[in-house]
Amino acid sequence: MKLRIHHTTDYRYLDPISRSSNDVRLTPLKRPTQNTAFFLLRVLPPCRLKNFRDFYGNLVTHFEVEEPHQNLLIESQCTITTEDPYARGIPLGAPLSLLDECGLLEELQPFLNPSPLVQITPELWRSAIDVFSEQQDCFELAMGLMDHVHSTCQYVPGITKVSTTSADFFATRKGVCQDFAHLMLAMCRAVHLPARYVSGYLYDARRTDVRGAHASHAWVEVWIPNAGWFAMDPTNNSLTRETYVTVAIGRDYHDAAPVTGSYWGNSGCIMKVTVHLEEA
Amino acid sequence: MPSLTYTPADLFDELMDSSGKIRECYQNVADRFSCMLPEELEQKVKSLELLFLKHGVTFTVYGDQQGTERVFPFDPVPRVIPAHEWEVIEAGLIQRITALNLFLYDVYHEQKILKDGVIPAEVVHSAAHFRPEFVGIRVPRDTYIHVCGTDLIRDRDGQYLVLEDNGRCPSGVSYVLENRSAMKRVFPQLFGSAGVRSVDTYPADLRSVLQYVAPRPKASLVAVLLTPGVHNSAYFEHSFLARQMGIEIVEGRDLLVLDGFVYMRTTHGLQQVDVIYRRIDDDFLDPKVFRKDSMLGVPGLVDAVRRGNVALANAIGTGVADDKVTYAYVPQMIDYYLGQEPILGQVPTYLAWRDDDKKYILENLPNLVVKAANESGGYGMLIGPKASQAEIADFHDRIVANPRNYIAQPVVYFSQHPTLVDGEFEGRHVDLRPFILCGETTKVLPGGLTRVALTRGSLVVNSSQGGGSKDTWVLAD
After folding, report:
1. Taking CB atoms and an 8 Å cut-off, how many pairs form between chains A and B?
2. Consecutive 10-residue runs of chain A (280 residues): their mean pLDDT?
3. What element of type H or E holds A85?
4. Which of A119, B92, B343, B370 could form a Cys-Cys staple with A167, CB 3.0–4.6 A?
5. A72 with A125, same domain?
6. CB within 8 Å: A6 and B91
7. Is pLDDT of B471 > 70?
């Protein structure tokens, strides 16, 4: 599937701020199932953009606006071809016993332990164990956890914030895609299934009931022994097909956030984000 | 009928690969032309000429003794660009125009790229079309170049290279549309199932750009096209575009400025103007600010622009971005503002302004193409290998006298394309000018003006210097 993505983040400060420093992760990751044909990042006011790869392999663009400014526009355009990551079937057949060895792999360590937004409480662990005890297979376990998160939580925008942890969300069970993802991550990690946070986009041709489509979306990838990373979307209780575009990965939202930054100045700020996806 | 093929020269040939085999994208065109009788072709060429004459598709040659208005020569063999090549061109142009617009914003505000030493400050400050009086003035939507015509050529390997960016008042798009409509009428069978992408949306797209930059959102927005008048070489285009967009075409004397607002004189009285698509150079826009002797402009217009009461497309001062010295630094701009590598290459450029380069240029004049930094239309140019001793000596002196105004490039032979010459097909040099519109999104018109040098071996494709044009087909996937 060939998709065109247009994503703008427009900051308006109520009073001019003296400077700002920003990191954006908007360049889709290079992967076998997705190929970026075109990508362009435009920042206004213009400034020097510097790219680097972070610890998780995401391409980060860093820039600083050093003069007083009242607006900051970050606009990305992208044309990308995606394939169904599950085209060769779902990776069943990895028994749970293989998970013990995952802990020995250094590359999986960050995705097995709690992180700032993925907090594992005893209650949360108990729920995860209930699902775990019914399963034999790693992938089915992940599906079970996803189903649990999806069926016990409600999608309600406006209640949670970017700083809401999995533990906070577990208490109210009302939130948005990133909260669903954080909770599923916490449950996976509670039962020693390596899991990481994914930020990206979801295309929905029919523009219907799919949650998180035509906005920045978030979901989860789990590590299946002998098979690799596989993505699942707990907000929609579905496997990620070719309609998903992976932009960045990390332990939680903080590692993969599309736009982060800080500014010097004593001013309120209005942020407006628009995401538009279309089939090319 | 003579077949479309001919003996290829030692150049990139658009029609044939190096073994003389017709490229896949041209198969359809080649088949159609080869089954046409000579009389049939002749008759079609005649109807084409008649069509252009009737439609008044003309241009004006300055300094020509015999009647200044001429029909734009047209060649019936279309230039074909396959989808995968177009994808690269499109991506490269969007990248480039985005960088140029950011550069313009920067040089008219903080000048960070100069302060960081990425582009020498002198390059900008010495550019003839840099307008220091506009530093610090914000333009609507922070866009400077709304319409850009970028000239591309192909080197020996078929790589598209940017030859120059035209970010002031690029012309030629009306020929793109007229060429297509004439081709469709005269060679309807050629289009058949060829999968040629349409160019018809251009006037509507241009109108949306004008709407987008309007200073105030207004239901009944008034946009006008400002022309220097009927004696301008591109007057045909001005009237064509105004008609197609459904906006008024005006001359300077039709507008007036009152209290910082621009009004158009109409039979119903004055009407406020929001956006001006101007086809007049900066110098002539406003006699109060620029050339005092300009009869073409509108006194007070620049003040109205400064106050943000009217939008100009393109903005004032874009010439600093298409200066031929600035051109040499576009790859650095793309790296600086976008953090990317350029998608489209460009021609290596020596700047007479740098002492080492000047020495090299002066020693190698017979092998180089020398261009004046701020000229366009093929004027003020020396093609070393074809120049006489006297011309070379003349340029030598000119470069020594004013090094900032000259650049030199190695001779890049343009690609070759089958062209009808006296009833036979021969290879002629072509370039390509695609048109880019920057509004809410940046769009590249899928097509462009292919200009052809009708004189054998000539590299000058400008219409003012004996060039013709072709219909340009961009194929859908």
Report:
1. 52
2. 94 92 96 95 96 96 94 96 94 91 85 96 94 92 96 94 94 95 97 96 79 84 94 96 96 96 88 91
3. none
4. A119
5. no
6. no
7. yes
The answer as to whether A89 is a domain residue is: no
ipTM of this complex prediction, to 2 decimal places: 0.87
Residue-range definition of the domain harbouring residue A31: 2-83+258-279
Contact partners, residue B448, CB within 8 Å, separation at least 6: B176, B432, B433, B434, B435, B472, B474
Which tokens hold the place of A279? Answer: 């089939």
Is B31 strand, coil or helix? helix
Q: Are A230 and A130 members of one domain? A: yes
Q: Which of residues 66-125 of B touch A (CB under 8 A)?
A: 87, 91, 94-95, 98, 102-103, 105-106, 109-110, 112-113, 116, 118
Is residue A91 included in any domain, yes or no? no
Taking the C-alpha atoms of residue A19 and residue B317, their distance in angstroms, rounded to an integer, is 28
Please name the residues in contact with B434: beta carbons below 8 A apart, sequence gap of 6 or more.
B89, B93, B149, B150, B152, B444, B445, B447, B448
Q: Say whether A43 and B337 touch across the interface (CB within 8 A).
A: yes
| Residues B398 and B374 reside in one and the same domain | yes
Same domain, A108 and A222: yes
* Type of residue found at A115: S
Residue with token string 């800080």:
A262
- Alpha-carbon distance of B149 to B163, in angstroms, equals 11
Residue of A41, A42, A53, A59 whose CA lies nearest to A246: A59
My answer on whether omega of the bond before B314 falls inside 30° of 0, hence cis, is: yes
Q: What is the CATH number of the domain that holds A273?
A: 2.60.40.2250
Segment (H or E) for A129: helix A122-132
Rounded to the nearest angstrom, the minimum Cα separation between A34 and chain B is: 18
Q: Assess if residue B463 is contained within a domain.
A: yes
- Asked if the structure places residue B13 within a domain, the reply is no
Q: Do B441 and A40 touch (CB under 8 A)?
A: no
Residue B16 lies in a domain: no
Nearest to B335 by CA among A142, A67, A61, A192: A61
Q: Residue B278 sits in which domain range?
A: 216-309
Tell me the pLDDT tens digit for each residue of B345-361.
999 999 998 899 999 99
Q: What is the pTM of this model?
A: 0.91
Answer yes or no: are the C-beta atoms of A66 and A74 closer than 8 Å: no
Give chain B's domain count: 3
Q: Which two tokens stand for residue B233?
A: 């070489």
CA distance A229 to A242: 16
Q: Which of residues 359-418 of B touch A (CB under 8 A)?
A: none
Cis-peptide, bond into residue A45, ω within 30° of zero = yes
Length of chain B: 477
For chain A, what is the domain count?
2
**What distance in Å separates the CA atoms of residue B257 and residue A116, rounded to the nearest whole number?**
61
Amino acid residing at B248? E
B95 to chain A: which residues are within 8 Å by CB? 40
Residue B39, SS3 per DSSP: helix
Same domain, B305 and B366: no
Name the token pair of A201.
């986009």
CB atoms near residue B4 (< 10 Å): 19
